[in-house]
């Protein structure tokens, strides 16, 4: 899985980038087929940093989460939580769909 962290309208320190990468890499445990995660931190408004995470998965459209908060780390945590919910919901749909098919056959 590829993880790309980028900043818009500002600069992130290497320590911040590695911390964001560590937080985002936890998403792999919710859905195995993730191929890429692109994290964009928008620092245009210094008092309200925005974070966008785009998750690409095999055989599925991209999932996107946005979050903006007064603190950068709250924004990152909020965006990660939103994406976790999307991945869990998608995984449940896929799992329930497969179980429904086998139940119809039997």
In short:
The protein is α+β, with helices and mostly antiparallel strands and 106 residues long. The chain has a single domain, classed as Ribosome hibernation promotion factor-like (Double Stranded RNA Binding Domain). The chain has helices spanning 14-25, 72-105; strands spanning 2-8, 34-42, 50-57, 60-68.
Annotation keywords:
alpha+beta; Double Stranded RNA Binding Domain; four-stranded mixed β-sheet; 4 strands; 106 residues; single chain
Query: What is the highest CATH level, the class?
Result: Alpha Beta
Determine the CATH superfamily. Answer: Ribosome hibernation promotion factor-like
Number of strands: 4
Which fold does the CATH topology refer to?
Double Stranded RNA Binding Domain
- Give the end-to-end Cα distance, rounded to a whole number of Å: 37 Å
Strand content: 25-35%
Largest sheet: 4 strands, mixed
What's the CATH architecture?
2-Layer Sandwich
Mean pLDDT: 89
- Portion of residues within helices: 40-55%
Helix count equals 2
Unreliable runs:
none
Estimated radius of gyration: 16 Å
Encode the helix/strand succession as letters.
EHEEEH
Write down the domain tally: 1
* Assembly classification: single chain
- Secondary structure category: alpha+beta
Categorize the overall geometry.
elongated
Spatial sequence of strands, sheet with the most strands: 1-2-3-4
